[in-house]
């Protein structure tokens, strides 16, 4: 890989300000960028879950931009710390995972990670390469460099301590282990969300204690989910997954609240900042229809993870099914014979809740109940008008020819065979 060249003022401004919350220290980071040194960019992840959503993509796009300037991404697979769990603001610890579970999740995560980051300019390393040989003496030496009082300054620890909620000793080890990762790979810059500031700063401090040049801490903003209120999270069902089908990705992005349009453009696209400033002004002054701006956003992001044709088809589907309220041209089908063989249907009828689960229209019984309670499910008889299925009608029986609609975009039609 060629050594990085000089960075123009325009590129420098974009790298250090767009989709950036804080850089510690910005002046030192800029100096490093202009030094011609190939920087080692640290991004760590704990594969406690196998999915990446657009909230993660904010940071991944920054890594890709710096790769294109000639720098090296070092991706640390937290196959050790994932077995401990980091609450990151949660009120309870994550359950410990087996190493086999961690590695299975990591494989899925890496496949999605490299949809954004250039795999040819990234190095993947596993924590077990250094922690696998850690003995008790090294652990005690590491823990002796910090105090409990220092760690209780971390916001989620401080809150739980004040509320007299338990904090496991293993959780206090987590920031130390993440910090040692920076020492192990001699990180120049570590990336994370604003909720990871404490952990990044511990790494910076530990490097200094161990004779290394302290890393720069590069923090990205937290992407608000499609509900417009809380940060994007799968558990809150306000997320857009990287692996989402084009129609679902486009449709979910169309549900983003109007006030989040500009931030989604800033964090997730390459639309020039000058155009975004104009868009923000036009949206504020009602000079542009937010629906058209969201179509632009949804098309751009869908194109990034699929292609032009898929984005075009997803937009056409949205306009047909959601805007004009027509039925889609192609509807997935499930046959009664298949449902009977699965033990889901009896004779020639199937319950609404059973069909939703069998067709993948909901991932769990709890989600089925929630969707029915929200009035998000409709039965469409053959040749008839849509009829709402209420929360108390989970057992309503459907027959061949009936269609089920869940939300605005998901359909399934029952067939005889």
Quick structural overview:
The chain has 417 residues and is an alpha/beta fold. Helix content is 44%, strand content 13%.
Question: Which structural traits does this protein have?
Answer:
5-stranded mixed sheet; 13 strands; 417 residues; 18 helices; Tyrosyl-Transfer RNA Synthetase; alpha/beta; 3 domains; Rossmann fold; Structural Genomics Hypothetical 15.5 Kd Protein In mrcA-pckA Intergenic Region, Chain A
Structure description:
There is one protein chain. This protein is α/β, with parallel strands linked by helices. The chain folds into three domains: 9-220, 3-Layer(aba) Sandwich (Rossmann fold); 246-323, Tyrosyl-Transfer RNA Synthetase (Orthogonal Bundle), CATH 1.10.240; 333-415, RNA-binding S4 domain (Structural Genomics Hypothetical 15.5 Kd Protein In mrcA-pckA Intergenic Region, Chain A), CATH 3.10.290. The protein has helices at 9-17, 26-34, 54-67, 99-113, 128-131, 136-143, 148-151, 155-162, 169-185, 197-209, 246-253, 261-268, 273-284, 290-305, 308-323, 336-341, 352-358, 365-373; strands at residues 22-24, 40-45, 72-77, 122-126, 189-193, 216-220, 333-335, 350-351, 377-380, 387-388, 397-398, 403-406, 410-415. It has a six-stranded mixed sheet with strand order 1-6-5-2-3-4, sandwiched between helices. A five-stranded mixed sheet has the order 7-13-12-9-10. Strand 9 and strand 10 form a beta hairpin. The longest helix is centred in the middle third of the chain and has 17 residues, at 169-185. The radius of gyration is 25 Å and the shape is globular. The N and C termini lie far apart (57 Å). Residues 86-93 have low confidence and may be disordered.
């Amino acid at each position: 890989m060629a050594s990085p060249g000089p960075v123009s003022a325009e590129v420098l401004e974009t790298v250090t300000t767009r989709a950036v919350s804080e850089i510690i220290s910005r002046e030192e980071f800029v100096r490093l960028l202009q030094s011609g040194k190939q920087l080692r960019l640290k991004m760590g992840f704990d594969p406690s879950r196998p999915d990446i959503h657009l909230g993660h993509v904010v940071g991944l796009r920054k890594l890709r931009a710096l790769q294109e300037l000639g720098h090296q991404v070092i991706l640390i697979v937290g196959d050790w710390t994932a077995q401990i769990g980091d609450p990151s603001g949660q009120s309870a610890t994550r359950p410990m995972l087996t190493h086999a579970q961690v590695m299975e999740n990591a494989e899925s995560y890496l496949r999605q990670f490299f949809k954004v980051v250039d795999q040819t300019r990234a190095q993947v390393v596993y924590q077990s390469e250094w922690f696998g040989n850690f003995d008790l003496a090294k652990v005690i030496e590491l823990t002796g460099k910090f105090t409990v009082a220092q760690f209780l300054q971390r916001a989620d620890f401080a809150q739980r301590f004040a509320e007299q909620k338990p904090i496991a000793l293993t959780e206090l080890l987590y920031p130390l282990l993440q910090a040692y990762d920076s020492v192990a790979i001699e990180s120049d810059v570590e990336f994370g969300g604003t909720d990871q500031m404490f952990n990044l700063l511990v790494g910076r401090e530990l490097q200094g204690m161990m004779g290394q040049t302290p890393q720069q801490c590069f923090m990205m903003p937290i992407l608000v989910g499609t509900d417009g209120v809380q940060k994007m999270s799968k558990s809150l069902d306000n997320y857009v997954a990287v692996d989402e089908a084009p129609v679902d990705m486009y449709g979910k992005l169309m549900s983003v609240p109007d006030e989040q349009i500009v931030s989604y453009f800033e964090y997730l696209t390459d639309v020039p900042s000058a155009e975004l400033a104009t868009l923000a002004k036009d949206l504020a002054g009602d000079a542009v229809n937010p629906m058209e701006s969201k179509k632009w956003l949804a098309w751009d992001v869908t194109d990034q993870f699929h292609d032009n044709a898929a984005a075009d088809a997803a937009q056409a589907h949205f306009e047909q099914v959601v805007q004009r309220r027509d039925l889609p041209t192609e509807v997935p089908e499930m046959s009664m014979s298949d449902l009977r063989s699965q033990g889901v249907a009896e004779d020639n009828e199937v319950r609404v809740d059973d069909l939703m689960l069998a067709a993948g229209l909901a991932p769990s019984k709890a989600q089925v109940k929630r969707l029915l309670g929200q009035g998000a499910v409709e039965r469409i008889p053959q040749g008839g008008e849509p009829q709402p299925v209420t929360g108390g009608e989970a057992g309503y029986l459907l027959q061949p020819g009936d269609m089920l609609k869940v939300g605005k975009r998901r359909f399934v039609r029952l067939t005889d065979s």
